[in-house]
User: What shape does this take?
Amino acid sequence: MAPAQPGVPVRLHVSLDGRAPGDAHGLDVDASGAGVLTEPRMYQILRQPQRITDRTADIAFPDGSAEAFVITSG
Assistant: This one.
């Protein structure tokens, strides 16, 4: 992912099943689901610590827009 405007950081908020991700947050997002896109790169937003089950993840960009090139899971 990357900010839509190069050099302009964009906040992101991630939720898992409608709640903060807690222990399932990735390296680039805190337990509350907050993170910042600063440059084009792969961002780890979720990392489920328990057994993998069907879940719903939502990503919001409250300040502006972002670009996503690929999203992987599994």
About this structure: Residues 22 and 31 are 4 Å apart (CA to CA). The chain has one domain: 1-74.
